[in-house]
């Protein structure tokens, strides 16, 4: 990366790690899954972050977007990849509290991006058949136009206790249904700010 005439940074940018909790400059406790109220923005030089939003231009068609610190921007959407694990319901509530929701995968391009970012770790997505067995619905009621199920899934395999009613990304990026009470990482999605 070419920093041009910018002086050498005094310290490297902070990269949150699992279990890494700290307090930000306003005294708010933050965590990897809850970046807190920093006025930091992805895609900006780190020395720029605390001063004002910087804007990143994505290609020639998307215009300028930004996401709050801790979120990743892609095609005008912001994504938060959790560092901890929770049940599907708790993960969804986390996203809703961030004015977001569990990720809705609309097409192959979004699927490819998410599979790469998930880095072979299982993550909840916002797809469930809890209401009517076998009728899969996105959390935002997006029509089921794109699916990427693993071979033989969804199979609603009964593990003795409950149906498999919540979907997640497998290590290979394909989807599987499992009981919603299992604890996995998750991905939140919301619109980027233009
Ligand atoms: Ca989406
Ligand atoms: Ca099911
Ligand atoms: Ca399954």
Q: Could you characterize what this model shows?
A:
- Helices cover 11% and strands 21% of the residues.
- By secondary structure, it is an alpha+beta fold.
- The chain has a domain at 79-189: Roll (Mannose-Binding Protein A, Chain A).
- The strands form three sheets. Strands 5, 6, 7, 8, 9, 10, 11 and 12 form an eight-stranded mixed β-sheet that branches.
- The longest helix is centred in the middle third of the chain and has 11 residues, at 108-118.
- The protein is globular and about 45 Å long.
- The model is unreliable at 1-28 and 37-62 (pLDDT under 50).
- Residues 153-155, 157, 164, 176-178 line the site of one calcium ion.
Tell me the name of the CATH homologous superfamily of the domain at 79-189: Mannose-Binding Protein A, subunit A
* The CATH class of the domain at 79-189: Alpha Beta
Q: Quickly give the CATH architecture of the domain at 79-189.
A: Roll
Structural class: alpha+beta
Number of strands: 12
Distance between the termini: 25 Å
CATH topology value of the domain at 79-189 = Mannose-Binding Protein A, Chain A
Q: Rg from C-alpha positions? A: 18 Å
Number of helices: 2
Which cofactors or ions or other ligands sit in this model? calcium ion
Molecular shape:
globular
Overall mean pLDDT stands at 79
């Amino acid at each position: 990366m070419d920093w041009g005439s910018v002086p050498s940074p005094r310290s490297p940018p902070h990269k949150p790690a699992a279990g890494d909790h700290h307090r930000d400059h306003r005294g708010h406790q933050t965590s990897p899954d809850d970046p807190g109220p920093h006025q930091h923005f992805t895609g900006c030089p780190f020395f720029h972050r605390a001063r004002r939003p910087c804007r990143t231009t994505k290609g020639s068609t998307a215009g300028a977007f930004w996401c709050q610190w801790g979120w990743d921007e892609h095609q005008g959407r912001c994504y938060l990849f959790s560092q901890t694990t929770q049940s599907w319901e708790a993960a969804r509530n986390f996203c809703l509290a961030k004015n977001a929701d569990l990720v809705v995968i609309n097409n192959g391009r979004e699927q490819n991006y998410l599979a790469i970012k998930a880095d072979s770790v299982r993550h909840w997505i916002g797809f469930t058949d809890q209401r009517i067995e076998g009728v899969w619905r996105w959390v935002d009621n997006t029509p089921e136009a794109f699916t990427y199920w693993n071979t033989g899934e969804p199979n609603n395999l009964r593990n003795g206790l409950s149906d498999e009613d919540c979907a997640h990304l497998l290590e290979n990026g394909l989807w599987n249904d499992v009981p919603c009470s299992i604890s996995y990482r998750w991905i939140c999605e919301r619109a980027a700010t233009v």
